[in-house]
Amino acid sequence: MNKMKKLLALALCLAMVLALAACGGAGTDIVGTSSTPAPTEAAEGGVLTDDEAIYMAALGDFYEVYQEALAAETLSERWALMAVAEAKFLESGVASPMYTAGGCYAMSRTAFRSGGYISWMGDRVYYDQMILTNEVIGNEDYAALTDLWYELAGTGTYSDSAREYLAGKGYTFADTAVTTFDRVGTTWDILSDGDFHDDASFIDYLYQYDSESVQQPRLATGYTVSDDGLTYTFDIREGVEWVDSQGRKVADLVADDWVAGLQHLADTGSSAIDNLRGVVVGVAEYLSGEITDFSQVGIKAVDDYTLEYTLVDECPYFFSMISDTAFLPMSRSYYLSQGGVFGIAEYDAATASSTYLYGTDQDHIAYCGPYLCTNVTDKNSINYVANESYWNAENVAIKAVNFIYDDGSDVTREYNDFMNGTGTTLALDTAQLEMAKADGSFDKYCHVAPNVMNIFLMWSNLNRQTYANVADGACPSTKDDAQKEAARAAMQNQNFRLAIGYSIDRATYIEQSLGTDLKYVCLRNGFVPGTFVSLEEDVTIEINGTETTFPAGTFYGEIVQAQVTADGYPFKVWDEETMSSDGFDGWYSPENAQAALALAVEELAAMGFEVSAENPIVLDYPYSAYNETATNQAMVLKTCIEEATGGLVEISLIECQDATENLNCWFNTTSGSEYNYDLGGLGGIGGDFGDPKTYLDGLLPYGDGFCDQKMGLW
Hints:
Layout: H1 51-70, H2 75-92, E1 95-99, E2 105-108, E3 117-118, E4 122-123, H3 139-152, H4 158-168, E5 176-181, E6 207-209, E7 215-217, E8 220-225, E9 231-236, E10 241-243, E11 249-252, H5 256-268, H6 283-288, E12 299-303, E13 306-310, H7 318-321, H8 332-337, H9 344-350, E14 371-377, E15 381-386, E16 400-405, H10 411-419, E17 425-427, H11 430-439, H12 441-445, E18 447-448, E19 455-460, H13 481-491, H14 494-503, H15 506-514, E20 539-543, E21 546-550, H16 556-566, H17 590-606, E22 617-624, H18 628-644, E23 649-656, H19 659-664, E24 679-680, E25 684-685, H20 693-696
Parallel strand pairs: 5-16, 22-23
Antiparallel strand pairs: 1-19, 2-17, 2-18, 3-4, 6-7, 8-9, 9-13, 10-11, 12-13, 14-15, 15-16, 19-24, 19-25, 20-21
Helix pairs in contact: 1-2, 2-16, 3-4, 5-9, 14-17, 15-18
């Protein structure tokens, strides 16, 4: 089975590591009543070594309930059971929810949500529709644009009205965006599971969300759905051309290019295709090798301009998926001309050959989107120009995008550059906030950015095997062998993981980046945002054997909390007053940390591991030593965990000297065995479609979940 890993484009998240929340009530029970299947295949001392056994010991309860949810008969029952499954995940302590993007002070030259917006994903960065001003937008005007959006969203008039408003206030409009980048992606093959620089700029979608969160036709001009809900037929726009990076035509775009794109997606083992397992006919079977003839998969080019998807069952969220990577086309003829091949085994063999050129750089992909990439100079610049052959070229708002290298180490430079015209939006850290207050910009330009749907979690490495970066040998651990084995045993202990989760003072951690005023705003206490979905009808499910009815309109987060409370865990996921999972710290409690740790110490002692002030559990935490904010946050993490655990846990801070070393600890890896941390993996996770499955699938075992590697598995 192909390993699958979801890599989020971090550049699309706000540049901050953002804030958290207030104190949640703590109960008397610490670990509750949840139980997991008995683990197997333990090494000497009882420490598990087999990935499957480790996973089932930690997340067996989640997996069992999640399978029930996927088999539910109604959409609302499905969502209710998914909420129960999430409760089991949170109770495992495998990951501690930290924060979401947003909730910080920001300044912007971009009209509110004009770059695209999706209710279940948040703000997008679609340059072709962005309203960008040469001047920084004043905070009063930004507030007026925000009000205008809420007034006009869904009417199709917001963009024109926002532009009219800004012009009336004396703003002028830019047609070139100048912004920053901190790394060049590892591949330009957008459909592979590599780290790519951009996607929406180079290849267009069937439909794409506009600034009002409405899907607009792009490469499709319309679609129909069969009466049984199983067949979606798209009319493909005629006259669209594929071009190379210099704008020279290489092929006509036809319906078969989506067939080629989906097969290539499957052949590469990209995690993007996980969304289609069990949704599109034959996808799961092709990935498992049960079928090798891709024509048996439920995607078909009826003719050059008619594309058909056949579903396994009715999928009420299917149309929300089509603005995702899994629904991008790829020019079959161009791909083949660059040494490309089709078939999983054939692809694996071809990529080892020097004749396979596709995606090796910006000059070896075909474009049908609004921009071409004409230059990539590592640690210097990246340049986009408008694609003159683009079907909607006359309506592309931003004609060029120039990226300037900035590794983020000099916050003074970043602030000054923004004030001088570089950057579309600047999320201010504490140092930049003081600069803004000193020069008067705070009162003129700063607003509080809204929270978005991304979630950042602190992950536990359950089976750590790497103690220096595989890619560069950097960030070596200083632990001896005994300390390594004790830490692995501790990380496989639920009580120990929960003790760490209860020990993290998230508000103080985030205060280092956002300041005192906003330190609680963007704390998120669960995995799936609590308001992500609400029940469409009354649903009755069992909560620990008791029939419990949740009425229509009940938010997802309310059901998560109901299960957590029933299981006797003291953390808080949902606030009834604010009707949100954000804006408070429902986890931090040194008392609960000490109680959970006491249980863990007893259980580890029974396995032969002494935990004491003389023999603490040592956990490595790599951090960006070149960044002042990250350094301060690392010190907060170390201090609060060590104090809350009474010195029985020691946090060893591992210095990453630049962004590459940091990413090589976890992001630039090929398997969970290469993840070089005990605590870490703070990458953003967001939704790809409007169903909780888009998050929870990340927790599936056997390498199918994009979070598996964050746990050190598969």
